[in-house]
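Sharing a chain and its predicted structure for anyone who wants a worked example. Both blocks are below, sequence first, tokens second.
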Amino acid sequence: GNDFEPESQLGIPLYARIPEASGNGMAGDEAIGHLTVLMRILDQDAIKQSTEIGASSNASQVIAIGSAAPGDGKSHLARVLADKLSAMGGSVVLLDADLHDPGPVSVLENQQGIVDLTAVLSGDGKIEDALWLQGTGVYYLGARMAVPGTIGTSLIETKLDGVITDLRTRFTHIIIDTPPILSIADGVVALRAADVKLMTVRCGHSKRDDITHALDQLRTAGITPDGIILNSARPRVAYGKAGSERQEARQMS
């Protein structure tokens, strides 16, 4: 429900409430904007800390977005967050780490022999040949078709870290769209590789038992999400928008 409070119920802070995409567009854009600024603040804090201990100050930020089950809005959030970070001047890649059910990418679907994430993980292709520049300025790296069973899991478990290490040298922000945690172990592997770990839940869809079970699996692997994103939340009125004659008169004056 909209009154879900993850900090008191799960011990994890709430990072953002994102309204339905079909609802208040201004409120949704504002919520995504706030989340984007929060990611940049966390990135700047990490750079400051690495500089203080003598490490390189040009480290990139890896953000993994997970969910307990399908349908929680994880992939949509990954796309819009990547677009926002790119619009703010970052060099961004969206990495679809789900080899079992990759997202639809029309430019890849009917092309034979194209290099994709599966080829890169298998050692049969180079990352620079698999990166696809989208119209929003965000690069995409994903699989062209599903990889069956344990083959996909083995590739993610043994090769994903190396791909992320390479991407860190090319981009300021790497957004990982992970497989659902309760569906396959790959989601745990992908979240473990991230600097910032976000967990999405969705009003009217996510089950509390599923969320608890997924968090138990993550904690068994030594992973605690940094923040919860509540999708499909009741939108708040966007700040600074003219909503009355009085506001309009004041803004004109």
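Comments welcome. The CA atoms of residues 106 and 243 lie 40 Å apart.
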